[in-house]
Amino acid sequence: MILVTGATGTVGREVVRGLPADLRVRFMTRDQAKAVGLFRGVEAVVGDYADPPSLARALQGVRTAFLVTTRVDGDDDARFLSAARAAGVRRVVKLSAAAVLDLGADDLITRRQRANEDLLRGCGLQWTLLRPRAFMSNSLSWAARVRRERTVRALYGTSPNACVDPRDIAEVAVRALTEESHAGHAYTLTGPRALTAVDQTRELGRLLGISLRFEELAPDEARAELSGRWPPPVVEALLASAKRQKAGAKARVEDTVERVTGCPARSFRRWAQDHIEAFTEIPDESGTWQGRA
User: Fold this and answer.
1) SS3 helix, strand, coil % of the chain, rounded to 5?
2) Max alpha carbon distance in the chain (Å)?
3) In this structure, what CATH number is given to the domain that contains residue 84?
4) Average pLDDT over every residue of 153-160
5) What pTM did the predictor assign?
6) Residue-range definition of the domain harbouring residue 28
7) Which has the closest alpha carbon to 49: 27, 30, 21?
8) pLDDT tens sequence across 49-71
9) Smallest Cα–Cα separation from 254: which of 194, 185, 170?
10) pLDDT tens by residue, 245-261
11) In this structure, is residue 253 part of a structural domain?
């Protein structure tokens, strides 16, 4: 039995879809109602990191687990790993981040990720760590403004990041969950080349057949935008991470995806082609088309 946490998230749902149909798979969710019909033929179980008895139920009979946690406080990883040991789980594949390798990164999020990696390596279970760069799908946050204004706004627009398609992360995760040879490995996952936000804007414009404008955000403007979605400590961590990107800390390209899966990492162009509908015009409630210039 394989348990997938974070199964409604960007990577987790691709992991569930990518696991072989002949394997027993279970996914953990906090909301049973939202899980109904989400994945055909996959067992759903209600579980919450803050509720150890629910973790025990979710992990019953599980041999391998895919672990995704997002909180920067609390003990979610510790509680999950304790429950996993008690349930007899053999191996945990953990979604972490490539920033843990950057000696110059000391923001709140990266410190938490390092601490959680240490917990996993020291818990007595077999482990595999996945350390991706930024998700290509992060550019979906631009979609509404692209549709409405034909504009992309971002901080440090000429700073490169070797961003990765979440589907490639998931394909590596599937290998790690189903093949014993990946135990004890930490995999840094990137796309095939480092891109800037300006590069991505240009590529989106080509695919859409329109001229997209890029606008550089000042740090204070970026802080204001992020503050609408995240608490202040997380906002400052994200801004610190962006500074590390500006310094060139996120530009290195690795061939890990191809080495593990046998297929080259997908390009941003490929990702954008497969998600182009998010950036095209959509009808409003009256049925008329919005976003036309």
Assistant:
1) 45, 15, 40
2) 60
3) 3.40.50.720
4) 97
5) 0.93
6) 2-132+166-189
7) 30
8) 999 999 999 999 999 999 999 99
9) 194
10) 999 999 999 999 999 99
11) no
